[in-house]
Amino acid sequence: MLHQIKQVFRSPKFIVGFIIFMIILLMAIFYPLISSVGPMQSISKAPFTAPGTYVNIEDAVRDTGGQLTLELPIVENRIEDALTADEKQKMITWLEDNGGVAAGELSADDIETLINTWNSTYDPTLVVQGMLTSAREEYKRIDIRVKSVLSVTGVTIAEQGEDGLEVTGTIDYKRFINVNDVANTFTFPLGADNFGRDVLTELTSAILTSLRVGLIAGLIATAIGLALGLLAGYVGGLVDNLITFITNLFTVIPSFVLLILISNSISSSARGVEVVAMVIGFTAWPWTCRSVRSQVISLRNRDHVNLSKLSGHSMPKIILRDILPYVASYVVMALILQISSGILAEAQLSMLGLGPSTTEVATLGLMMNWSQKFSAWQVGAWWAFLPVILSIAFISFSLNLMNTGLDQVFNPQLRDS
Amino acid sequence: MSEKMSENKVTIKKGDSVLKGVGITRVFGYGKSRNVAVDKVDFDFHAGEVISIVGESGSGKTTIAKMILGLIGVTEGEMYYNGQPRDISSHKKKKEYWQGIQAVFQDPFSSFNIFNKIDDLLIDCINLMGMKHKSQEEKVEMMTEACSFVNLKYAELTNKYPFELSGGQMQRLMIARIFLMKPKILIADEPTSMVDACSRATILDMLLKLRDEIDMTIIFITHDIGLAYYVSDTVYIMEHGKFVESGSAESVIITPQAAYTKRLISDVPKIHEEWDLSTV
Ligand SMILES: Nc1ncnc2c1ncn2[C@@H]1O[C@H](COP(=O)(O)OP(=O)(O)O)[C@@H](O)[C@H]1O
Ligand SMILES: [Mg+2]
Question: Distance of CA B164 to CAs A69, B168, B216, Å?
């Protein structure tokens, strides 16, 4: 036994799968401990906040401690941020067509010359023959944006006093404060979802819940499949025919259809995470049953089983002592595959809206479902679904890799030469 | 050694019928894959004899052995045990039956549960013999005795797993198991065909020694008619599921009737000469 475990940890495929899986698992366990928010806590009031660090504006304005005047190209940076390359190209085109600037004289890279030329040349009142009104309006909008970001007068702070607004201070445009001195900042490493929840924290909790779903479903499916497979394979005869009939029935009806029917018939109030996991487990056992059965059939004619019979052992004892140990390694592999497909089945069901009916617990499938319902794709909020898809992919990839590794250890003919 | 062997043959007391089969038939599969492995065979085995069943591979020898052992069902026919119709309808009755009839199988490597230690196998036999209550020391003593009977040292085997043994050692351990169980009938299904040449003679020798020790009937299954002649009193020749010839070893081998028997004999060059066990 110990020898076999050592062998398993010498298989490169198993090790890679195991490491990936452990990284995901440890991250899912430990990240919530260092995260300052709960996985189900709504942080952001706006849906789909982009990833980044957010600084409380009032705290930033009021903070005087670490103020600093920095000689940075602030205006240029603002313009870079405010104008797209496309808009810069449009400005150049206007200046060349209507401002008498020679072609090639201006470039989008030399932003200072471009802005200066624009400011001295652009005339919003000029009506160019043949130019659409919409195009003219767009140039006006660009002009307004340029003018506003060029402002270097700073901001005047006024507060509500007893008789109207009182000016309490001004902020020069070159002033900076240390981010660490701002009392309230918040980082969304992977943005926020439609509920305003921090996606990374929510994702870690969803991974744990999905793994639990996979484990429950996998254990149920493996337990049923193993018990029925052992019974059908060892006892044979009528028992075998009956179990094979039931197994075939479950196989002929695609298990996904069965899943949908069962999920649908359970009232949504009762459809918690555990219930969905059990439904998946109760529909996934047939293939474990089939393969255990065929293994047992080849084992039951082995002489050590005959000898055990001749020694007078009872059937349950023979199954437990002389059959089970021989299929144990195979059952472990089947369990791993069942866990992996349980996680995928939950994701599929939830995508269809037939998963756990709750918004208080996150699973990988539910996160996909929510991002789909709230049009994350359409608004470009990739952070709401891409990390989830990658998590599902990596979990099932690592589990399948571990399974392949085990397969190579237990079935030496599959080993690479 | 051969002197002693011939003596064994002389001192056989022909006893009552211990095992009798009438019209025993076994069919595997049905429809197109229907295969009559054993076809209406009759036999009558007497106490204290060594009976050989000889036939080529696939002739149905193992199938007959398993039917006699009650490991597989009989499609048709009646079996009599100690003169009574055999009754193995319940697990309890099977357990009783198996106290009187045991087996050594062909392949020692598949005869052991590789997950159990050697001690477990031997202790199982002691328990089955109704000596579960005995103290650990007494059990160890019995196991030591059984092992030394087959020239193995219990102290070297304890806590070992079967795969740490050679095929010959495994087969000897199987004989030690029989020594502990002391059955009235032993079926040995080609016990020497899958062990190394050096171990073959030892194993045969031990089987015959055991026969004298506990006075049992041996049903010896082999494809080697020379070997059968050497060890047995009665020989049954099997071809395609049927017994084509039977009788005392001398008469069958010296004056064979069936063409199949003649062919089997012609394959063995030195059959009438003194058997040299070192070449077995
Ligand atoms: N469990 C089984 N199922 C189907 N056919 C079997 C089975 N066991 C044996 N047979 C068939 O019965 C015939 C006799 O086999 P067997 O008794 O093992 O022969 P032997 O022991 O003389 O080599 C063979 O044709 C074999 O294929
Ligand atoms: Mg055979």
Answer: 81, 12, 31
| B30: contact with A, CB 8 A cutoff | no
For residues A199 and A190, give the distance between their C-alpha atoms in angstroms, rounded to a whole number.
Answer: 6
Task: Domain of residue A78: give its range.
Answer: 57-183
Q: How far is CA A34 from CA A26, A29, A37, A241, A396, in A?
A: 13, 10, 9, 55, 26
d(CA A222, CA A331): 7
Q: Is A267 exposed, middle or buried (0-12, 13-18, 19+ CB in 10 A)?
A: exposed
Q: Within 13 Å, how many C-alpha atoms sit on residue B187's CB side? A: 26
Distances (CA, A) of A175 to A71, A153, A172, A178, B246: 9, 12, 6, 10, 115
Verify that A272 and A230 share a domain, yes or no: yes
Domains of chain B: which residue ranges?
Answer: 17-266
Among partner residues B91, B103, B115, which is closest to A310 by beta-carbon distance?
B103
Q: Check A307 against B111: CB less than 8 A apart.
A: yes
Same domain, yes or no: A16 and A113:
no
Cβ neighbours of residue A130 closer than 8 Å, sequence gap 6 or more: none
- B17-266: which CATH topology? Rossmann fold (3.40.50)
Last residue of a domain, one of A149, A183, A217: A183
Cα-only R_g, chain B: 19
Residues A78 and A115 in one domain: yes
Does residue A293 share a domain with residue A216? yes
Radius of gyration in angstroms for the set of CA atoms belonging to chain A, rounded to a whole number: 33
SS3 A379: coil
Angle between helices B167-181 and B197-214 (to 10 degrees): 10
Q: DSSP of B114-176, one letter per residue?
A: TTS-HHHHHHHHHHHTT-TTS-HHHHHHHHHHHHHHTT--HHHHTT--GGGS-HHHHHHHHHH
Give contacts of A325 with chain B, Cβ < 8 Å: 113, 115
Look up tokens 């094979």; give the residue. A244
Phi, psi dihedrals of residue A98, rounded to the nearest 5°: -120, -15
Of chain B residues 126-155, which have a CB less than 8 A from chain A? 128
A255 within a domain of the structure (yes/no): yes
Choose the closest CB to B110 out of A302, A308, A321: A302
The CATH number covering residue A25 comes to 1.10.3720.10
- pLDDT at residue A79 is higher than 90: no
Separation in Å, CA B161 to CA A5, A386, B68, B156 = 18, 52, 30, 11
Residue A177 and residue A217 share a domain: no
| Nearest residue to A283 (alpha-carbon basis) of A298, A269, A263, A302 | A263
Long-range contact list for A63-68, CB < 8 A, 24+ apart?
A63/A177, A63/A181, A63/A182, A63/A183, A65/A177, A65/A178, A65/A181, A66/A177, A66/A178, A66/A180, A66/A181, A67/A175, A67/A176, A67/A177, A68/A175, A68/A176, A68/A177, A68/A178
Q: Output the CA angle B182-B188-B190, nearest 5 degrees.
A: 160
Q: Which residues, numbered 281 to 320 in chain A, qualify as contacts with chain B under a Cβ-Cβ cut-off of 8 Å?
A: 302-304, 306-315
| Span A231-288, pLDDT tens digits | 999 999 999 999 999 999 988 877 778 778 887 888 877 888 998 899 899 999 999 9
- Kindly provide the ipTM of the predicted complex, given to two decimals: 0.87
Count of domains in chain A? 2
- For CA atoms A14, A17, A22, A23, give the dihedral sign: positive
Q: Are A94 and A139 in contact (CB under 8 A)?
A: yes
- Express each pLDDT in A107-163 by its tens digit: 888 888 888 888 888 888 888 888 888 888 888 888 888 888 887 777 888 888 888
Contact A274, A340 (CB under 8 A): no
Q: Determine the 3-state secondary structure of B26 from DSSP.
A: strand
